[in-house]
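Example S7 (structure tokens).
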């Protein structure tokens, strides 16, 4: 046995192990409405390759843990985004991509354009630009992953929330 060899023992907390797994398997739901969606598709392509960071697109909100809102959001679409966000399982994250989804962008004076998606759902990371480059979106995704890795207490909150739902159903 070598000096300093631990014998193959790996010590960690369950929450740290789960955070590592969540960080390295970020499944995202796409909601692209304008030119930012083209940049989002470019980032998922072979040059940007989001899958090398463990991220894969999902077609249903029930499987996704991140929603990427890219492009102009109208008031009519805002209710749909809220519905998709509500269908996502906890813990869930939001990345707002581009000037239009961040603050209304060029179209903010229009009567039908929402002045930022944060008026409807809570946003974790903002990616600025019109449209933002794929490198900026990758940086935003890495910021979300860093947040996932350092998050504490989410497992206990989910357990307590689940137990309360079971107790309410049984009484």
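Recovered sequence:
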């Amino acid at each position: 046995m070598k000096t300093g060899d631990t014998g193959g023992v790996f010590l960690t907390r369950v929450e740290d192990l789960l955070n590592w797994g969540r960080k390295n398997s970020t499944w995202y739901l796409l909601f692209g409405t304008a030119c930012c969606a083209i940049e989002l598709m470019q980032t998922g392509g072979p040059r940007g390759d989001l899958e090398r960071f463990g991220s894969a697109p999902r077609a249903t909100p029930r499987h996704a843990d991140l929603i990427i809102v890219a492009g102009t959001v109208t008031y009519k679409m805002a209710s749909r985004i809220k519905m998709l966000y509500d269908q996502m399982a906890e813990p869930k994250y939001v990345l707002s991509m581009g000037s239009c989804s961040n603050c209304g962008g060029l179209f903010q004076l229009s009567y039908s354009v929402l002045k930022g998606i944060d008026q409807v759902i809570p946003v974790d990371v903002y990616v600025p630009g019109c449209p933002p480059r794929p490198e900026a979106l990758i940086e935003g995704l890495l910021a979300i992953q860093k947040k996932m890795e350092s998050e504490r207490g989410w497992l206990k909150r989910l357990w307590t929330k689940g137990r309360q739902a079971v107790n309410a159903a049984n009484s």
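Notes on this example. The longest helix spans residues 134-150.
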